[in-house]
Amino acid sequence: MSFVYVLNDRNEVVRRRVKLGMVHDGLQEIEDGVGAADRVVVTGLQRVRSGLVVTPELKPMPVPVRSEPQSSRPVLKVPLGLNLKN
């Protein structure tokens, strides 16, 4: 089972199951489970737990350039991540 932590509209941490795709330039592709508007936690994972209220800090995330042909099925890329400040 694969999962990520996302923040709801109250900045509360929620654990969400995801379907993983391929790795591109060191970044994991997520095929299902998060949307473009979701705020995904990318740092502070050792301290995070469901239900914790945090102060998010948006950070730009690298978006890899794909060199292989695109599949016919669209895949979501999430370019923003969150650093947690507690």
Q: Describe it for me?
A:
- By secondary structure, the protein is mainly beta.
- It has no helices and six strands.
- The protein has strands spanning 2-7, 13-24, 27-32, 39-41, 55-60, 80-85.
- It has a six-stranded mixed sheet with strand order 3-2-1-4-6-5, with no helix packed on it.
- A hairpin with a 2-residue loop joins strand 2 (13-24) and strand 3.
- It is globular.
- The relative contact order is 0.29.
How are the SSEs ordered, and which strands pair?
Layout: E1 2-7, E2 13-24, E3 27-32, E4 39-41, E5 55-60, E6 80-85
Parallel strand pairs: 4-6
Antiparallel strand pairs: 1-2, 1-4, 2-3, 5-6
Short description:
With 86 residues, this protein is mostly beta strands. It contains no helices and six strands.
Spatial shape: globular
Q: Average pLDDT, to the nearest integer?
A: 80
Taken together, the total number of domains comes to 1
Helical residues, percent = under 10%
Number of helices: 0
What distance separates the N and C termini?
28 Å
The run of helices and strands is EEEEEE
Question: Describe the biggest sheet?
Answer: 6 strands, mixed
- State the strand order across the main sheet: 3-2-1-4-6-5
- Classified by CATH, the class is Mainly Beta
Poorly predicted parts: 76-80
Name of the CATH architecture: Beta Barrel
In terms of DSSP E residues, the strand content is over 45%
Radius of gyration: 13 Å
Total strand segments: 6
**What name is given to the CATH topology?**
conserved putative lor/sdh protein from methanococcus maripaludis s2 fold
Structural classification? mainly beta
